[in-house]
């Protein structure tokens, strides 16, 4: 978000004072980067709405661009890690897209206690202990796996 236009809209005059009050709602004591992250997370949480942005003195176009960049980054990760794709299973494990191996999320992962919204992830690392564990996971869209691994993956099994 630091490479796009200003996130906060600060008009002149009395409207500027109100906008400043709105901006403070997102303030993180640790600094500007985390303040921007707070604004971004709120934008996503409240449905990426233009009217919500107007009401909170935020730049809709800038925040929409940040969402787009985040999606692009996740697609780039998928392009490099499509071989490490996995789908969530109802038993709380994952199944690898290549070989249908049962994968367990490592307890240190933030994904350990939650199901991905999309049902799909790519992972960075796999280790064999008593069970096969995966670490450093990112939620993805299944279509991205097919886009990058279409020569090797069976669409019917996905």
UniProtKB/TrEMBL annotation:
KW DNA-binding (keyword) present = no
Q: What is its EC number?
A: 3.6.1.-
Limits of the DEAD-box helicase OB fold domain: 73-152
User: What's a single GO CC term here?
Assistant: catalytic step 2 spliceosome
UniProt keyword annotation of Nucleus present: no
- UniProt keyword list: ATP-binding, Helicase, Hydrolase, Nucleotide-binding
* InterPro entries per record: DEAD-box_helicase_OB_fold
In the UniProt record, the signal sequence range is: none
Q: Name one GO molecular function term.
A: helicase activity
Q: What is this protein called?
A: ATP-dependent RNA helicase DDX35
